[in-house]
Amino acid sequence: MAYDTNFTGQKFKVVGTRPLRPDGLDKVTGRARYGADVSAPGQLVGRVLRSPHAHAKIVKIDTSKAEKLPGVKAVITSADLPDLTNGDAGMYDILVNCMARGKALYDGHAVAAVAAVDAATARKALKLINVEYKVLPHVTDVDEAVKPGAPVLHSKMFTDGVEPKPTKASNVAKRTEFGHGDVEQGFKEADVIVERSFKTEQTHQGYIEPHACLANLGSDGQGEMWVCTQGHFVYRNTCATLLGLDAAKLRVTASEIGGGFGGKTHVWAEPLALALSRKANRPVKLVMTRDEVFKASGPTSSTSIDVKIGATKDGRITAATATLRYQGGPFLGMWAELGAMTSYACYDLKNVKTVGYEVVVNRPKVAAYRAPSAPMAAFAVESVVDELAHKIGMDAVAFRIKNAAKEGTKSSYGPTYGPIGIGPTLEAAKNHPHMKAPLKKNQGRGMACGFWFNFGGQTSTSLNVTPDGSVNVSVGTIDVGGSRASMALIAAEELGVPYENVRCVVADTSSLGHNDMSDGSRVTFSSGMNTVIAARNAKKVLIQRAAKMWDIPEDAVTWEDGHAKPAGANAGNFPPLSLKEIAAAAANTGGPIAGHNEFVADGAGVSFATHICDVELDPETGATKIIRYTVIQDAGKAIHPSYVEGQYQGGAAQGIGWALNEEYVYGKDGRLQNAGYLDYRIPVCSDLPMIDTVILEIPNPNHPYGVRGVGETSIVPPLAAIANAVSNAAGVRMTHIPMSPPRILKALDDQAKAKAKAA
Amino acid sequence: MAGVHVSTTVNGDPAEFVCDPDEPLLDVLRNRLGLTGAKEGCGTGDCGACSVTVDGELVCSCLVLGAEVEGRKIETIEGMADGDKLHPLQRKFIEHAALQCGICTPGFLIAARALLKKNANPTEEEIRFGLAGNLCRCTGYDKIVRAVQDAAREMRGA
Q1: Exposure class string for A53-88: b at 16+ Cβ within 10 A, else e
Q2: I need a labelling partner for A740 at 20 to 30 A (CA). Which of A111, A116, A184, A440 fits?
Q3: Topology of B88-156 in CATH?
Q4: Interface contact flag, A25 B109, Cβ < 8 Å
Q5: Which of A325, A13, A8, A14 is nearest to A139 (CA)?
Q6: B99, B142, B150: which to substitute to probe chain A, counting the most A Cβ within 10 Å?
Q7: Are residues A28 and A64 in the same domain?
Q8: 3-state class of A726 per DSSP?
Q9: Residue A122 and residue A28 share a domain
């Protein structure tokens, strides 16, 4: 069906209001069902045995004792998961990550799994599995991994993207490059050049709900899975491939999701639960422990980044480069590539070049974490931008405004921008009272900008008008932060019915066509646009039915305020028919009334943010306290502003944890030292101030309501904004994230020593 | 392992169960009594998602043994509303959009109720420290603090 998805500037009646969310009652009463909250008759408990070694050859696995333990119903190893990936390298990596094949690649890598009648028996069974390892040299640091002589993880990994292709295996999986112009020439034109190297440590998304699923797979190849996921269709497709099933025969139902932030875009133990269920002929519930979540799900990369930027005295950037090394765990990722693409996306640059290196190390397989890769690149670039502004004596905001990208700018990663929000967020920052508030002793202010692409993607949506005139919207995109409320608002807006008359549900994989997962800030953009189209399609049907009821031609009927009306005086003199009245008559006018749409949502609008942050530093302890924080971000259009604010605040809070404290700590033995919330400390309520938000709305021309997507950009500026604030407070440039008290003390100490030496 | 027989009260109703001596109260609530409102986020008392009260005292139910609650009064999120009348905290959490994914919400509500029982008029700082045992990864806590402030105001009749 033909449809127009361009922004029209229509006036809204309900979009932009703040009604109560439809899943609110269930979530405040404990009724909402998450991954671990559902059980099946006869279910078994699944548990996974994991490698204690960072890198080890698996010589032999003896499961015989475990199999004999009463109550154990199935034991699996990689032998139970034959390679069915048919040459798909990415899928093969997923298979290897789900269960080690011949070699354990990180501390926590799965080597076997059991299903037993209860948790105690399953735990006992794991202890009875005898794995003989030959421990190999390991490497966990991204810089160490690229040095000559580093232990090589894969004997057949020859760096991709380099000409001529290397003949020697290394831990550099791939090289990518972006940019335009002539950076050498650009640096020659610069009056001032700043060059620095930065490091960021590995962090975890830290969703409070561990991965959980209930799998039921029969010997007839038909199965069902209840699972917490950001993409149940993607989980279905992946699990079907790995287990040799027809995708249509595996029905996956998404539970409520207790946070994901990218970490639930990827299967971890779900294929194991299905394989255990198939072998045991019983349903298997498999819930990860927190320790397992840290060790064996998908944190984000640790990185090492070199940045060089040159500018003229009057504040124009003449050239900018970045070299970015991101580790992806033991497998090829696209993480450095995304870092290289996003590094300079905020700026209008004549000469720019970024190079990314995908590095493999003995750490867990990296997964997306909210605007994956962009926060680290922004930290490095925005730190140097700040320093450069300072060196040429320009205000940091004014310097950025002078160099900001705008409509028509060729971005550093290729495309030419349409209307964008970087300039407006900077202007809003400049004029915000936060920028002018006085600071006290040991306090510092920092600001920084951030960018994220936002995604579109495959989307299938179904809207059904029930006989009583209430409306059901079935979407295939997981609701991670209130999107069901947004979809109901959109359907209500289009049909002209009250928000309360619409109920939006996330349908299972057998009820809709394929939907890509809830990632890339795509849900309100893609499913939202699809809900607009589905509602408009339903409206066409409603008009047809009204025409039939009045016995006049369809084109003599229009839709207004939830009613069919005669288009003009010539059409006839009929009182308006409400949606409810038309729905009630549906059985006699052609049957159920519905609107559907399937498409690839195209034209996602890029998104920018500027953050301002004040910190207070305790020079004795090196502890940093965030005392004020302001997020300014372009939403395109805020469908439900409360949940847009929530995304802004949540991203900032995660960024604050990352900037100041969160860090994977590996021992010399290659084992993770802090796989729990006590030692991997995420921000708690008393660590944070209120987080102020400013929503700007620069419409995305490719969405009927102007929506861009809001979920991810908010985590991009914090590392840099806080680093700039801490650097201003400390009087020394901070180059290593997190800026934990020991690192800050060391920086202060080094500075004092340098000063003493100079004096 | 021989089971332990326990008689207790959950949300005002008598409850009996047999549990393993080393079985956490959280597992009893979720797996034996069918009360899945309390969540396991960590199993080590660090996240507060499993918060319940035992004889009015706020606890992480993952750190209490089922065998310890003989004769005691347990209150969980399932008992927080009075029939169809939500507790003011529950209502304010929805109104202030103080939840996104909602997995931490039951724990926050139980902890916030315990806080307001001890201190009906807490400052922002007292709320922040009072709820520091509960982790939320979605909201940045801003809207949670505001919801608790608003509920406290309403409960005081201010």
Answers
A1: bbbbebeebebeebeebebbbbbbbbebbeeebeee
A2: A440
A3: DNA polymerase; domain 1 (1.10.150)
A4: no
A5: A325
A6: B142
A7: no
A8: helix
A9: no
In terms of domains, do A126 and A66 share one?
yes
Q: Which of A524, A535, A529 is nearest to A501 (CA)?
A: A535
- Measured in whole angstroms, the distance separating CA A16 from the mean position of its chain's CA atoms is 24
Same-domain status, A540 and A589:
yes
* Beta-strand pair A172-180/A352-359: antiparallel
Evaluate whether A513 touches A695 at the Cβ level (below 8 Å).
no
What CATH number did the domain enclosing A292 receive? 3.90.1170.50
- pLDDT tens per residue across span A491-513: 999 999 999 999 999 999 999 99
**Residue A479 covered by a domain:** yes
Angle at A233 between CA A596 and CA A5, to 5 degrees: 35
**Chain A residue nearest residue B109, CA to CA:** A28
Residue A118 in domain: yes
Question: ipTM value of the model?
Answer: 0.98
* Cβ within 8 Å, pair B143-A646: yes
The residue from A601, A617, A638 where one domain ends is A601
Q: Are residues A114 and A90 in the same domain?
A: yes
Number of domains in chain A: 2
Amino acid at residue number A613: C
Yes or no: say if B74 and B8 are a contact pair by the CB < 8 Å rule.
Answer: yes
pLDDT in tens, A221-273: 999 999 999 999 999 999 999 999 999 999 999 999 999 999 999 999 999 99
Task: Tell whether B93 is within 8 A of chain A (Cβ).
Answer: yes
pLDDT for B29 beyond 80: yes
Structure tokens at B61: 């139910």
Q: Could you give the count of Cα atoms lying within 13 Å of B72 in the half-sphere of its Cβ?
A: 16
Q: How far is CA A584 from CA A204, A579, A607, in A?
A: 51, 9, 44
Q: Which residues of B touch A32 (CB under 8 A)?
A: 102
The segment(s) of chain B belonging to CATH 3.10.20.30 are 4-77
Q: Is A291 exposed, middle or buried (0-12, 13-18, 19+ CB in 10 A)?
A: middle
Q: In this complex, which of B109, B128, B140 lies closest to A650 when CB atoms are compared?
A: B140
User: Under a CB-based contact definition with an 8 Å cutoff, are residues A660 and A624 in contact?
Assistant: yes
Q: Which fold has domain B4-77?
A: Ubiquitin-like (UB roll) (3.10.20)
Rounded to 10 degrees, the C-alpha dihedral B59/B60/B65/B71 comes to: 30
- Shortest distance, CA A290 to any CA of chain B (angstroms): 5
In a domain, A688, yes or no: no
Q: How far is B154 from chain A (nearest CA, A)?
A: 18
- Rounded CA gap, A158 and A166, in Å? 6
The answer to whether the Cβ–Cβ distance between A685 and B127 falls below 8 Å is: yes
Domain boundary at A550, A577, A601, which? A601
Residues of chain B with CATH 1.10.150.120: 88-156
Same domain, A62 and A28: no
Q: Does B63 touch chain A (CB under 8 A)?
A: no
Instruction: With 0.90 as the threshold, say if the pTM is over it.
Output: yes
A30 and B104 in contact by Cβ < 8 A?
Answer: no
Range of the structural domain that residue A500 is part of: 24-32+456-601
Q: What percent of chain A has pLDDT over 90?
A: 98
Is residue A695 situated within a structural domain? no
